[in-house]
Amino acid sequence: MKICEYMNSDWFQGLQREVANSTKADVARKMGIKRSRLSCVMNGLGAYGSGAASTASIEQEYRRTFENVECPFNGNAVRIEFCRESALCSAPTHNPRQMMNWQACQKCSHKPKQIEVITLKKSLKRVPTEPVQQAGIIDKVTLPLPEVGAPQIADQTNQEAA
Fold it and tell me: What is the pLDDT of residues 60-71, one digit of tens each?
């Protein structure tokens, strides 16, 4: 077995523990990858051994599947994705208990870094707010909203049916 740089990382040590407690086939099935790919990573073969292939996706699948963190708010073990989603959501002002949980998430060491939050916010701002007009095509589906307090134009189909 070849010793590669990624084999000294904490996630790889955890992956070895999981395989030792089960089988490569079971671990690969749980992670959603092929057993042969897991074997190549575990043994440092092929592109993984030469450093040509990145193990980032394997690490991400391992962490998603097997890593749990202890929630400082309730003391239970929760999935890391659940933990991060709770920390990144907007403040739940409608529920006092959820608000206390959210406040604990803001101080938690498992909360993602600010860079990840900025990337998420930028991706949400890509929604167009004005009608699209490209190459002489006008968006005829998006209609302007009526003014508040102004007389409303009734739908003619409803008037004919009445």
Answer: 888 888 887 788
